[in-house]
Amino acid sequence: xxxxxxxxxxxxxxxxxxxxxxxxxxxxxxxxxxxxxxxxxxxxxxxxxxxxxxxxxxxxxxxxxxxxxxxxxxxxxxxxxxxxxxxxxxxxxxxxxxxx
Length: 100
Fold this sequence. Notes:
It is built from five helices and four strands; from the N terminus they run βαββααβαα. It has helices spanning about 10-20, 55-60, 65-70, 75-90, 95-100, and strands at about 5, 30-35, 45-50, 75.
């Protein structure tokens, strides 16, 4: 299956809308998408953080939704490389960026 290419902002909106339907994510208002190197046909992005935080049980319950999103969408090359450069400049903040 070919992945649909989306900008970071579009991908965040799609993921937020989908994840809000998952138990435990109803109150989530913000997510962080982080680019990553795609290996062997894998996704070139990951869900790095959600705000407010959700518990581990909710994350495990949403795993199928996250996997489906990663199989369906690809982060645009421009956003992927721009995000990578921003992380390089500020240091890898990962999920903590939204938790502060």
